[in-house]
Amino acid sequence: MSRRIILGSTAALVVLGGAGAFALAHAGEQRPVLDNSTARYQAPAADREGSFTFTTDVTADSGVKGLKVLAWPANSPTVGKNPLTEKDLAAVESATCEPTGDDTARCTYKVTVTAAEAAESAKGRWHVATLATADDGDTAFDDRTATFTVD
User: pTM higher than 0.85 for the full model?
Assistant: First the structure.
């Protein structure tokens, strides 16, 4: 075999091997994943305010940077005509996320609901939209992560 063919083949193997290692390294990285999501609405009563609480476990290979949460009524004429997007959630409130492992966090979003707010809220089924962000910038958007009912 000629020396030129051997050197050319060796260089090609190094390049292909490096590209393969890069592809394998990035194939293991995933967008953030939500698991064990729950939404709970408690209506206000005469002696106390109500609340809305959403809790989920977020996993991301690079770590969890944050979670944005937005509750919206299923019968919303606005969202019905213009579905929510990732951009819509960029400006909403964040959940509080506490690490539970190297790549996992338990995120909780809780707000109080006054009697006046409850009276003005749409009754029926509501959805919870989420935007999870990993430390490396990867995101995962879901406009129906969980549902709950407002009576």
Answer: no
Q: Is beta strand 104-113 parallel, antiparallel or unpaired with respect to 139-150?
A: unpaired
pLDDT digits (tens, 9 = 90+) for 79-96: 888 999 999 999 999 999
Secondary structure of the chain as H, E, C letters: CCHHHHHHHHHHHHHHHHHHHHHHHHHCCCCCEEEEEEEEEECCECCECEEEEEEEEEECCCCEEEEEEEEEECCCHHHHHCCCCHHHHCCCCECEEEECCCCEEEEEEEEEECHHHHHHCCCEEEEEEEEEEECCCCEEEEEEEEEEEEC
| C-alpha to C-alpha distance for 134 and 102, rounded to whole angstroms | 12
Q: For 43-90, what is each residue's pLDDT tens digit?
A: 999 999 999 999 999 999 999 999 999 999 999 998 888 999 999 999
User: How many angstroms separate the Cα of 13 from the Cα of each of 3, 16, 27, 42?
Assistant: 15, 5, 20, 62
Residues 6+ apart with CB under 8 A from 72: 79, 84, 126, 127, 128, 129
